[in-house]
Amino acid sequence: MSDVIVSYEKLKAFVVGKFIDVGVAESDASTVADVLVHADLRGVHSHGVLRTEHYINRIKAGGVNIYPCLKKERTGSSTAKINGDNGLGHIVANTSMETAIELALQTGIGVVVSYNSSHCGALSYFVKQAAEKKLIGLAMTQADKMVVPFGGKEKFFGTNPIAYGFPAKRYKPVILDMATSNVAFGKVLHARERGAKIPEGWGVDRNGEPTANPHEAEALLPMAGAKGYGLGMTVDVFSGLLAGMTFGPHIKPMYEQLNEQRKLGHFFMVINPSSFTDKEYFLQSMDQMINELHEMSPLDGYKKVMVPGEPEQLKEETRLKEGIPIAESIYQYLTQNS
After folding, report:
1. Of 113, 170, 109, 100, which is closest to residue 142 (Cα–Cα)?
2. pLDDT tens digits, one per residue of 141-152
3. Quick one: which of 45, 106, 149, 194 has the fewest CB in 10 Å?
4. Is 151 exposed, middle or buried, given 0-12, 13-18 or 19+ CB atoms closer than 10 A?
5. H-run or E-run covering 266
6. d(Cα 314, Cα 112) in Å, to the nearest integer?
7. Which residue, among 160, 162, 180, has the nearest Cα to 222 in the 3D structure?
8. Strands (DSSP E) found in 128-211
9. What is the pTM of this model?
10. Residue 278 banded pLDDT, cuts 50, 70, 90
11. What pLDDT is recorded for position 1?
């Protein structure tokens, strides 16, 4: 299936229009579109505008509150919690990261948990906000069961991603955003959309057996076996239990029961380096680390050693100039009249 190349501005406008059509306030629609297009710019289509139709369907079914009253409660000098009132997760997460940044600038560190939220999209968007202010950002979010535990064959934890953002002085921030499964399930959906196979090691069928057919993939495998399994559990503790939410198999599924509110939890931490060391030293040392990695001899087939998130950053720069490839079926959905 062919792709359609769309400019950043047009793609964002298409998505904003879709959300406005179902009653979402223009400012909120713009924030959601920002998060989704950010993912497509970085080549992470699993969390990009592909998700628009699902969000719209859940809104129409009543599973998302498009008029939320977010309640912010300061729980300590450096901590806060935010009740998302079952609103769009992108808005809840954006408010939570902004709050964590404010706390870090005031006290050196800011920790915020969000609850009563919904799917918030790519976490890289939020940690990037902190890193661009020369702060360190950390984010986690829970998801419904999709990953088999190490040694098991039935789903238990979600893909439960973790993201970090580290600022540098001369270079752009180092952004690491990863699922604790081998891949995000959105990549399986992306393969289904294109009629492509998935690599061995991504998914298993209903019997827990590996499969290359994205339509047979019922669950994902944890990243790096027992290590990814442990990290996935950690995310549910930080973003679920710590936020007063539930975990794993007790979370309402993303693509079922669209009329029910999912009540997800998120976790955000922002650290001001100047509270621990000289900020100038920290930023210059980040530059030095990046430089030394770039100067390493690469393996055959690689142009150079890159830092985490650098391939996505380079892709973003290119796509801002040349446009973003979108599956034709997604383009048709975004441009059709409601």
Report:
1. 113
2. 999 999 999 999
3. 106
4. exposed
5. strand 264-271
6. 31
7. 180
8. 136-141, 162-166, 174-178, 203-204, 210-211
9. 0.94
10. very high
11. 59
Q: Phi and psi at residue 270, in whole multiples of 5°?
A: -130, 135
Distance CA 92, CA 113 (A): 10
The single-letter code of the amino acid at 200 is: E
pLDDT score recorded for residue 337? 78
Distance CA 113, CA 97 (A): 10
Task: Answer for the pair 124, 38: CB distance below 8 angstroms, yes or no.
Answer: yes
Strand partners, 163: 139, 177
Write down the H helix ranges in 119-183: 124-131
**8 Å CB contact between 117 and 251:** no
The confidence band for 166, taking pLDDT boundaries of 50, 70 and 90, is very high
Supply the angle between the helices 26-41 and 124-131 in degrees, to the nearest 10.
90
CB count within 10 Å of CB 286 equals 20
Whether the pLDDT of residue 303 is over 70: the answer is yes
Residue predicted with more confidence, 242 or 46: 242
Q: Considering the chain, what is the average pLDDT of its residues? A: 96
Tokens representing residue 274 in the block: 């100047």
Q: How many residues does the chain have?
A: 338
Beta bridge partners of residue 73, listed in sequence order: 81
Q: Which amino acid is at 183?
A: V
Mind listing the domains of the chain with CATH numbers?
Answer: 3-181+222-277+317-335 (3.30.1370.60)
Does residue 327 contact residue 6 with C-beta atoms inside 8 Å?
Answer: no
Place of tokens 């300590």: 76
For the annotated catalytic residues, the residue numbers are 119
Q: Phi and psi of 82, rounded to 5°?
A: -130, 125
The structure tokens listed for 315 are 């892709």
pLDDT tens digit string along 109-146? Answer: 999 999 999 999 999 999 999 999 999 999 999 999 99
If 0-12 CB within 10 Å is exposed, 13-18 middle and 19+ buried, where does residue 293 land?
Answer: middle
